[in-house]
Amino acid sequence: MSERGFILVKIGEITLKGNNRRYFENRLMDNLKEAVRGLHHVKVAKEFGRMYMNYDLSEEAEVLEKAQRVFGLVALCPGVEVDPDFDRISAAAVAQVKALKAETGMTRFKVEARRSDKRFPMTSPEICRDLGGVLLSSIEGLQVDVHAPQFLVNVEIRDRAYIYSREIRCHGGMPYGTAGKAALLLSGGIDSPVAGWMMARRGVTLSAVHFHSYPFTSERAQEKVYDLARQLAVFTGSIEVTSINLLEIQQAIMENCPEEEMTILSRRFMMALAEQVAKENGSQALVTGENIGQVASQTIEGLTVTNARVSLPVFRPLIAYDKNDIVEVAKRIGTYETSILPFEDCCTVFLPSKVVTKPRLAQIEASEANLDVEGLIQRALEGKEVLRFER
Ligand code: ATP
Ligand code: MG
Fold it and tell me: Its family (predicted)?
């Protein structure tokens, strides 16, 4: 049989799941299979309590790239699979360690062997000793270090032999689709895509709701939000975006309410509209990128007043993050470059010259009484557009 690539898949928290473990593992396997769909020779399997992938070596880079984005994985250990014969194992290990040393400069290693198939003629300690010797004599500059090795050369003997010495860290979390569904208020900014990604990493299925003020906001601004949705779909597989025009609402607020309440009043409409969409598409919670203290409207008083508009729970995973930390995540997940494109947002179109930082609910509700709230909400929902984006 030819040399095939193989990846030992390390899963994290799922192993804590007791009786539900199988449910989470099966979901993870399905998500992994879905992530590498389109590649020809990949198999995802579970055997002896471990999950692994098996593929044609020519597809290795792609398999790793796609698999790395699947939530629930802690690490991928790519290696090779050969016939269970010591010479073949040695040849494969030498090639692997040579490449690893060239790439990383690491030299201090330790061999770890595990023999599940007792038909193999050497014991695990013998494999460690002999393979260590072969590596030392074949590659210059290596050193055995059993106490603090820089890398492990793992050998597992089953029906075939598996050799791996690299470990690629993944995002961890829980398998997507195992923790209910939530509606993400997705703007074109830096924060909300990150907030959505963090919830998705916990297994929460996302749908997105975006508000625009077309034609005051442009089609390019809308396209930017769709690009962000596509970037989230790289991790989630697909995502549905509901776009709602807020223009009539913003104009009504401008004409009938105090200027400094513009932001808080539009925010309450956004929440109410998002909650309607959530209830229609089966979402059980709302998610925003709000963050305490970041802008004038994001005070405890401001959040209290927006929160009071809805009855679904509102998750704000970034509430206590520093901006730098949010930017770091945005860069890591690939949304940052899109987020900083300078297109106008519906909030910037009607940016008031002053903002109430400590709104009182009674006062805000009194202002809303000047508006035909139900009519405005109904008309905004009637004009909504729904699109689905795939990975
Ligand atoms: P972001 O970078 O996510 O836009 P921000 O720091 O600019 O956040 P705000 O503009 O005050 O903060 O918005 C706070 C949150 O309200 C956003 O994270 C998002 O969840 C929601 N939101 C704001 N504008 C919109 C919009 N146009 N469409 C959908 N949700 C929005
Ligand atoms: Mg914003």
Answer: Belongs to the ThiI family.
